[in-house]
Amino acid sequence: MEATxxxxxxxxAMSIASELDxxxxxxxxxxxxxxxxxxxxxCDTVARVTPMTHFASAxxxxxxxxxxxxxxxxxxxxxxxxEPRVFVNDGFKITLWAHLEPAQxxxxxxxxxxxxxxxxxxxxRRIEVVTPHFMDRVAATQRDIANRDxxxxxxxxxxALLANTLHDLGRSIVNRRGAVQVLHGEPHPLNILTTKDGPxxxxxxxxxxxxxxxxxxxxPSEVSRHYPDADQDxxxxxxxxxxxxVATHRWSLGDQHPSGRESxxxxxxxxxxxxxxxxxxxxxx
Length: 285
Prior knowledge:
two-stranded antiparallel sheet, alpha+beta
């Protein structure tokens, strides 16, 4: 977000929390990308703030996590002191979440990460929710690649590389006709918290339907190897899809990721060199 928008978003979150009788006199910005994550003090609540025009459904995310928490799935819960819903203030949607103290070690073994993801998938199989197919995200990315107003600096050779990668790999994955279920959508290490209760997943704004191998394409390779009964050939193809999706984001106008264009160049290089395509964390920039 722009600096002025950040200030408005912080003020909106503090105001909502105060109205809900949570003690608030300070706010710490934890992350700032397509939505703002703020730790409100001294009530120690985490607020996630998005513009009203944001693509994801905050309402669906809250309901999804509420249901998963009831099944003891490994998710970071909503704030228990307030009604689990979306609050609106000054053009922003605001959701409130429990703040969880991190474990002493912020690292956990790949096998534990894989067990947590398998547990999350088990819970998601029991949830009745309407979500897009992961190929809908592929199609949206293909539109961004084709739209030179969205990706103006992308060279024509690289534009063709991204388009062809998504077309060919997407078709191959779908043609395999593997089992499909609700997925997290982006269960990479930045969307998992290390807590005293073990790893807990956050940020369900990209929830999609597809094979579990699509989720595994977002995690480190050593984690995917510990996931039970995963088709590693499909994981490999999904990694190519994920690399193309992330590369397109990095080349999109207005992308605010801290790694910027440098990582965008690296992801394109990885696509040119594959297969086998690397996991995201194996791409160096």
